[in-house]
Structures are given as structure tokens and as C-alpha cells.
Amino acid sequence: MGIAIRIVGALGLHKEPFGLSGSSADLRRRVWWSLFCMDTFSCMTLGRPTFGRCRPSINVKLPSLCGNDIQEALATSPRIRHDQVAELDKKHVDWYEQLPLLLSTPQEATTAAISTIQTNIQWRYLNSRMLLYRSALLDYAMRLTPFSTLPPERRHVISQCRLIARESIVYIAENSISSLTAAWGSSWFMFQAVLVPFIYTLYKTLKDITTNQSKF
Questions:
Q1: Of 85, 113, 122, 202, which sits 20 to 30 A from 103 (CA to CA)?
Q2: 32-84 pLDDT, tens digit each
């Protein structure tokens, strides 16, 4: 860890990147702060001095966190506008597509550790997108609004939620990992994903019951 910190320091990653913007600058920030946090955590755990102590010469900014936008939107209001859902989802997809191939492409996984990291990233990526779309499904399920009467953009949001949930369920089922800690995570993400078909089926069933009762 100490060698890694010295290497990134020699590369100047502790300085705010000059002449770079977007994902290139953000990648440098992520590398620096990931190593900084890992060094601090491990040294505190072992009771040793850290190599990455904050000082005025370290002026690199914190990386952008696209997941925070989704969390903030869901915390502000459970009813997110469809255009806001599309905007946040696009940012999330763009972030994933800009990841290094080593973190996003199964063929690039040269070790079991890299494969585990890839799997965890994919789980969280799909879960975040699904939660973003699921807010619309929950809203209309509680209102028992007929699906056919929803505006086209809302039907699209619910359909996307179902597609992403299906993709998440299939990916978790087909990609097992040996780490017990990661297995706990897969159980949680599977639980979140299967709620979507469960809620949708329950919503359709209750709506049919309500419709039939109104005929009498």
C-alpha cells in the first residue's frame, strides 16, 4: 500500500488535474482517493502511521458520485418525474460505459478477485437503475391505477423497471461468487429485484379484483 501511495504521488494524482475534464479527470480523483482511504483504513486498523495524511499539497477534489443523485431524488420525493428519471438513468449508464474494460467486461477478468469486483459493480449498477424506475411502479400500484390508462411515458418507466429487474435476476442467478460477504450482497440485490415482478403481479391481481367487484 505504501508503494502504491508513493507511485500515485509521483504521478501527481494528489494534485487537481490541469487540462483534463470529464471522466479522465474523475478517474484520476477516484484512483487517488481510493488509495488514500484504503491506506488510512488499513493503517488505523493496524496501528501504524499513514502515508496519505492530508496536507496543503493535496488539493485534488473529491470524485463525482452519480449514485448520490439517484439517492437524493428518491429521498426528496417518491414521485420522480419521468424526464428526471430518464436524465438520471442516462448519467448512470454513461458512467458505467466509461468504466475501464477491466471492471466491466467479463473477458477481461484475469483473476477471481477481478471477477468478484466486476460482479459486485454490475449488481450495484443494475440495482441503482431499478430503484430509480421502481418508484413509478410503487406509486401506481398503491393507487391501483389501470396500466392502460397511464400516460405513455409512465408505462415506459414501469416497463423499463421490469426489464432491468429481470436482467438483474438473471445476472445474479448466472454469476455466483465464492466470497461469503459478497454472497450476502447478492441475496439483498436479488430480494430487491424480485420485488418488482411480485409488486407488478399483485398490482394486476388487486386491480382485477377491484374491477370485478365494481361490476356488481
A1: 85
A2: 888 888 887 777 666 677 765 667 778 888 777 665 677 777 777 767 788 88
**Residues 147 and 196 both lie in one domain:** yes
Q: Rounded to a whole number, what is the distance in angstroms from the first to the last CA of the chain? A: 73
State the Cα–Cα distance between residues 104 and 106, nearest whole angstrom.
7
Is there a single domain that holds both residue 100 and residue 195?
yes
pTM (2 d.p.): 0.69
Nearest to 2 by CA among 59, 50, 44: 50
Q: What is the DSSP secondary structure assignment for residue 12, as one 8-state letter?
A: T
| Residue 178 and residue 109 share a domain | yes
Question: Rounded to whole angstroms, how far apart are CA atoms 79 and 85?
Answer: 10
Best CA proximity match to 140, nearest among 163, 152, 161, 158: 158
Q: Are residues 109 and 72 in the same domain?
A: yes
pLDDT single digits (tens) 122-167: 888 999 899 888 888 888 777 777 777 788 888 888 899 999 999 9
Q: Write out the three cell numbers for 209.
A: 379484483
Angle between helices 152-174 and 180-214 (to 10 degrees): 140
Please name the residues in contact with 98: beta carbons below 8 A apart, sequence gap of 6 or more: 23
**How open is the CA angle 34-37-40, to the nearest 5 degrees?**
145
